[in-house]
Structure formats: C-alpha cells, structure tokens
Automatic annotation (TrEMBL):
It comes from the Bacteria. This is ExpE6.
Length: 677
C-alpha cells in the first residue's frame, strides 16, 4: 500500500503536489510579489485579519501580516483552514526557513517550502487549495493590495490574481486617445457598474487609473453582458496601442476584460466622434456623464467656433512663439451677449487661461465686419469696440508633438476650438506688435509692461553673429564713427541707389560703412556691391548674418565692430539731405547719450521725432511726435525725450553691451528715463 500511494503522489502535477503538502499542515510556500512583499500560502488552524508575524525566528523581522482565511473542503487531521497572507519583508534575498504567526504566548510555527514560487505558480497553488472559494479569496487579496502602495510588480501580481478567475469578463473593442491625454474605451462586460472606479490598465507596464464608466444595452453580447464605455485618467501618459486589458471591481468582485484581437485604435482627432456616437445611449452618474460629454466635445483638429449657434466669434491676427515656448498672441473676441466663460490656450494636457490676463483693445474693424451678420444684428454697440486683445502666455510646456489651439468654453459648458500655427520668431516679433498698436491707446503702458516685456524676457534667443566678411574699400583707414547699415531682403533691390546717396554726401563718402545683409542676400549681391563700393570709392565692409530682422542685423554689426561709438541706420531709410552724419556726430560730442534725428515720410509728415514723458513722472509716456507736419518740429532744438528710434541714431557701443541687445533696450520704451536728442 505504501509503495502504491507513493507512486500515485509522484504522478500528480507539481502544483497539486505542493497543494497536497500544504494541506498536511505546518508547511507554507512563498511567492515574491516584489522586494518588500511576500504572498504566503498555507493551511492549519483558523487565522485571519492582521496578525503578528516573524520570519526565521528573528525578532528583527517582526511585522504584521494581512491574512485571508477559509475553511478547507477536504480537511486532513493537521489542518482545517487554508490561508493566504501578505507579508512585508525587508530583505528579499534572505533564505526563508520558518514563519511564526500569532502572539508570543501562542504562536503557530510553519516551515517554508524549499523554493520561492513565481506569482503565477503561487496563483495555481492557491486555486488548488481554495477550490470553490477561490473567487472570494482572490477578491480579498486584491482589495488588500490595492490599499497598499502600488508599484509595477505589485500591479502585475494583481493582474495575475484577477486573471486566475475562469474566463474573461468581457472585451475591449475600441481604444482611442484624446488631445487632453485621456484614453477612451468601448466594449462589453458582464459585471461593469456605472460610476467612477479605480482600475488597473494592463500592458507591458500596468498602471493605476481612474475610470468613469457608463453602460448601455447591447443585443450582440452573451447573456448577462452589457455594453460599456470608459474614460481613463492616469497619472502618467498612456498610449492606446499599449492597452492590453482592464482590471476593475464590478458586481461581485474584481474582474478582467481583455482587449479583443480585432480591436480598433483611434487617434485624438477621431476619438470624439466615437464618443458622441454612443453617449446618448448610456447611463451613469452625473459626474461621469459630464466628463464623457466634455471628452465628446474635445478638440478634433479643426476650427469649430464659427459653427456656434450663439453670437460668439474669435479670431487670431498674430501669434509669436519664443524659443522657451512662450507665446505672444493678438486677436479679437466678439461676445456681445457674454456667453463666454473662459478662453484657454491648450497643447496636449497643458493649458493656460488667457481671458484673465490679457489686455483688451478697441477694434472697430471687428464691429464693422459683423454689423450686418444676422446673428449679431442690433446687438453691437456702435460707440464702443472692446473686442481686441493681446496676451503673453508663458510656461505652457514643451510638448511639441501635440497641436496648439485655443479652447473657448461657454457658460453652458459647450466648447469650441481654434487651431493655431505660431510663427517662431526672435524677440523682434514683440517689437512689431508694438508698432501695430496706436500710440494714443490708453492701454499702451499695460500692454508693454504686462504683455510685450514678459515675452521679450522669455525670448532667450542667442545673440546674432556675423558670418562672412568682405572688405570692399579701405574700411580700417576711414575716420569717424562707423555707420552700421542693416538691409533686409526687402531692401535688396534698393541697395545701388542707397549706396549712391551715401557716395554723394561728402561726409558719408569718407565715413566707415558696415553693410550687414541676410546671408542669402549677401550670397547674391556681394560681387555687385563690391563693384559699386569700388566705383564710388566708399570705405565699405560687407557682412552677412543668419537673420532678416533689422534689429538683429544692427546687433550683429555692433558686436562685430570694436569702435567706442556707432551710428545705426536702417536700410529702409533715405537721407533727406546731406550733412546728417556730421550733425549727429557733433550733437553726440556735445551732449553724449543716444541721439536720434527726426524721421519723416515723403509727404513731409513726421514719422518719428521722439516720445516725451509725463510731467509728473518720467517713467510713463504721455505723447509722441508722430503724424505731425514736418514744419511743426523743424524749429525744435536739441530736446530731451523719453525714447528714441534705433532705426537711425548714434550711441555708445558700451551702452548696447550693457543693455544686452537692441530689442531688450527698445522693449522698455515706456520706462527708459532720459535720453538726449
């Protein structure tokens, strides 16, 4: 008989042998969940709850084990109950010999099996030992583990425990991404409950996520099944193609729904439509339905503001992007009936509210454009036009792969979108924005201080430098402060007459001239300009720079020279008469500072003759000489002004080096202090 029994035991599968040994009592097996947690499976007297534990009879290992116990269906003389314990440990590499459970006065002592099992092996042993009670044991174990800190290995163990239930609880048939970072799921299950649930998203790296679940009726599911949709929000990025299943707590315990082999995966532009197609059939809690409705109304990569049935429209005229992902946006919002709750700039999961930080501007052109529109007719005030805005937005994040867009939210929670394509420009983009604003605008100071200056400060672009240098004349032998001429590609065709005017002026003909061009213009025009300079006998130095902005070209020229004083001149300007260079130099030698002459249009109106400060405070501008007839300022002598034009001026090179760059100096136009002129 003994020989027969021994032979029968040897024929059992290894897991059955292990379960049989445990049922003899006094023995346990251990599964390593991770470096700090063991799953211990054993049998003996009844035990459950939080129980004192000690490993290898070592008092230093004293801890508390979470134990789930159950009555054994087949009870050998030495054991009436099975148990599964979650045991914290400090040293995963330490050999396991003995386990003590219970108080010092009446401990129960167990001997560990000869080897530590893998989690899936342990789950098989647990199934053999628990029998029909496996479902309740698994649910209790998962409940306990979900209350603990969860790492990847613990989550993988929870998935293995849940999958030990016979069969899948359903399938995920659709997995879609949204621009906001949420993952949308659609499928069927037998035990899904409507509401918000904490779930595990299965995959190569399982993660914990919140899932808003809504259910709906389906005729094509097995008996007891129902359709469901879910919206996942995880603390770390998820991709639709990485989702392999879902572990969730439904009716009657923890369940597992796997991804169907013919699942459909959709990107952010397609997912909102799939949500809308089923949303009206579902039921859930109000909070979950609100989240799903918001996701159904999320950005699909197209403009939707023009389709709103309410009198609300939005437009963007310019959007500049600095190197640091800071933006300067100007545009308009028409909302005469105040339907708009917020306007946000969004990219992926990053967002920034704009309407609580922008500066509003008068935009009568917007009023005129919509006066005859049926939706706006009789709603617009012809006296006031506060529709324009300009705003600086910084710190949005650097997720360059996600599309940039404006999100407009109405007070009834509807959303509409406007895709944006920013122009990645240097800080001079902010200066162009200043030029587009009426100098008499009441909000000029706020625009400069709150919007333009922060954008320029965030535009940490590298200083422009000079590339190729070509001397077309005796530049080094010429006397006087060098004239740095910045000519962009727009002025390329006018270079010959411009050089002719400099040659006709007896003063500039002998002054050192540094002509700075865009590199492409330099490549096309260098030979021709050299011939002209030699023909006119101009002491000309030709330089190239990788920029077409006039201020960056001037800056490159300043940095490339070593003179104490420089004269700056934009290639778009033409001298009205000869002698301007000598008068600038004389005024500079007399008064120092930064000297800028009057600039005028061809119709003899003043384009620029300086800005003056308020009598009460030199740090705020109250006016500007612009638009006057030229005769109105010709009688002015050397006059102290608050800001000068760098398109034509003489200045100490050191002043530029201290300021750091021309755009930085100009950006503080409203608060410069005194500049001689």
């Amino acid at each position: 008989m003994r020989s027969t029994m021994a032979g029968a035991e040897q024929a059992l599968p290894q897991t059955s042998q292990t379960a049989a040994r445990i049922m003899r009592g006094g023995r346990v097996v251990a599964c390593l969940i991770d470096d700090t947690l063991l799953l211990v499976i054993g049998a003996g007297a009844p035990v459950a709850g939080q129980v004192p534990a000690q490993v290898n009879d070592d008092p230093a290992t004293a801890t508390s084990a979470s134990i789930i116990g159950w009555r054994l269906a087949l009870q050998p003389p030495t054991a009436t109950h099975g148990f599964a314990a979650l045991l914290p440990i400090n040293d995963a590499d330490r050999p396991l010999t003995t386990l003590r459970l219970g108080q010092e006065s009446s401990p129960r002592r167990y001997i560990f099996g000869p080897r530590t099992l893998a989690v899936r092996e342990g789950v098989t042993v647990l199934a053999e030992l628990a029998g029909a009670q496996l479902t309740d044991v698994l649910d209790s174990l998962v409940d306990a583990m979900m209350q603990m800190p969860t790492g990847r290995r613990r989550l993988a163990a929870i998935v293995a425990l849940t999958q030990a239930r016979k069969g899948s609880d359903g399938f995920l048939e659709f997995v879609g991404e949204t621009h906001e970072g949420a993952i949308f799921l659609r499928g069927w299950a037998r035990a899904a409950d409507p509401g918000n649930a904490r779930v595990i998203v299965c995959g190569e790296n399982p993660v914990v996520a919140d899932c808003g679940i809504a259910t709906f009726s389906r005729q094509d599911t097995p008996q007891g099944g129902a359709g469901f949709i879910g919206l996942l929000a995880a603390s770390e990025p998820l991709r639709a193609r990485d989702v392999e299943g879902l572990v969730y707590r439904g009716r009657g315990g923890w369940r597992y729904a796997s991804v169907h082999e013919h699942r459909l995966i959709a990107g952010p532009t397609d997912t909102p439509g799939h949500i809308r197609s089923v949303l009206l059939q579902t039921h859930s809690t109000p909070a979950v339905l609100l989240r799903l409705r918001s996701a159904a109304n999320s950005f699909e990569g197209r403009e939707t503001i023009s389709t709103l049935p309410v009198p609300v429209r939005l437009g963007v005229d310019n959007i500049f992007q600095a190197n640091s992902s800071a933006f300067l946006i100007s545009g308009w919002l028409l909302d005469p009936d105040e339907h708009v709750q917020s306007v946000r700039l969004r990219r992926g999961q990053s967002e920034m509210r704009l309407d609580d930080r922008w500066t509003r501007l008068e935009r009568s052109d917007v009023t005129d454009a919509f006066t005859d529109e049926p939706l706006f007719k009789s709603m617009l005030d012809r006296e006031t036009h506060p529709h324009g805005f300009i705003v600086f937005a910084g710190g949005l994040g650097a997720d360059g792969a996600a599309p940039l867009h404006l999100e407009l939210t109405l007070k009834d929670s509807r959303r509409a979108f406007l895709p944006l394509t920013p122009a990645r420009l240097p800080a001079s983009g902010g200066l162009r924005q200043i030029k587009s604003i009426d100098p008499e605008n009441w909000g000029l100071t706020e625009i400069v201080d709150r919007q333009i200056v922060p954008f320029l400060c965030a535009s940490e672009s590298p200083s422009p430098g000079v590339g190729a240098i070509l001397d077309a004349g005796a530049f080094d032998e010429a006397s006087g402060p060098p004239i740095i001429v910045a000519a962009g590609q727009a002025e390329e065709k006018e270079l010959a007459p411009f050089l002719g005017l400099l040659a006709l002026d007896p003063e500039t003909r002998h002054a050192p001239i540094a002509l700075v061009l865009h590199s492409e213009c330099f490549r096309r025009q260098a030979g021709r300009i050299r011939q002209l300079a030699q023909f006119y006998r101009l002491p000309l130095r030709l330089m190239s720079a990788e920029t077409d902005d006039v201020y960056d070209l001037l800056e490159a020229g300043i940095r490339a020279l070593s003179s104490e004083t420089v004269v700056l001149l934009a290639g778009s300007l033409l001298p009205r008469r000869s002698g301007w260079y000598g008068r600038l130099v004389s005024a500079y030698e007399e008064s120092g500072g930064i000297i800028s002459p009057t600039l005028a249009y061809e119709d003899h109106s003043v384009r620029w003759a300086g800005s003056w400060a308020d009598a009460q405070s030199e740090n705020s501008l109250s006016g500007r000489y612009a638009g006057y007839p030229l005769s109105a300022v010709t009688g002015l002598k050397l006059t102290r002004i608050a800001a000068a034009s760098f398109e034509c001026c003489i200045m100490p090179r050191e002043a530029f080096l201290v300021a750091g760059a021309l755009p930085a100096a100009i950006s503080d136009t409203g608060k410069r202090g005194r500049i001689s002129a």
